[in-house]
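Handout, page 2. Input:
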Amino acid sequence: MTKNRTAVSQPNQAEHIELAFEDNRLVCALYGEYDQNLALIEQKLGLEAIPRGNHVSLRGPSSAIDQGRRVLITLYDMLEQGHDLVIGDVDGAIRMIVSEDSQLLLPTLENRDRIRMAQIATRKATIVARSPAQDGYIRAMSRTEMIFGTGPAGTGKTYLAVAYAAALLERGEVNRIILSRPAVEAGERLGFLPGDMKDKVDPYLRPLYDALHDMMQPEHIERCIVSGAIEVAPLAFMRGRTLANAAIILDEAQNTTSMQMKMFLTRLGEGSKMIITGDPSQVDLPPGQKSGLVEVLDLLSAVNGIHFTRFSHRDVVRHELVARIVRAYDGEG
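Output:
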């Protein structure tokens, strides 16, 4: 909690306020190593943030001061709740505070002091939304049985889907996780890779494994794979099955054909949640082959019970350079 806030008007619409934080143990984490968190707030919001012990003085335009105040209070609340703050969380809080996205994607504001960002929690980690689109995506996963997350690389669409599936399994809300990907890559085919089927499939599913390891202990993952509680399989293995009481994820869905996508979507059984992710701008299908993902974005747009979250370069959380690369490829400079 903060206390002893004061505000002093300055010329040219500038303002000066001072925030005080009660727990000195949390203040170091709030500021970041070498005050890097404060430096990011300064850079993104165009203000000065001057730390003095457990007090922070904010100077700048009144609108930026209000945003900086809410960012710091939000981050301090996260620390009080036991969250380990990293620089991405700081960037995410700034994005959420200053976002002008549609009201449907905005998180819940609490007294204009703090922002309540959607979270995914397991015993190993807690993931906090870092953009309004991520916030809406996580909330949609909690209330919708079929969710599409589409957009460029680095927006967290696959990572959050796997994290949410892991949380559901841990809470006992599903009996298993099923991870799938179409075996379509540039220049290679499964049959030319060495080893048995698992060895052939693993390279295609590596990003899904990586996300699982962030949310679950390695030994738990191995036990779940052996017991069948976590299943990884190429898309072709889904035909003829009914997937009940499961969290089902299809990654790289832009590389499905129309028939493959229809086959996959109709596998949904009772008590299951299905999450489909992909980037329509990176289709690796042969020329002339229509992407099943591109097709359903239009075909199913009006179907009740399906939610679509569309990420853009503004939602890239991997690295600022990635966002600039995506903008360049989209012709936005």
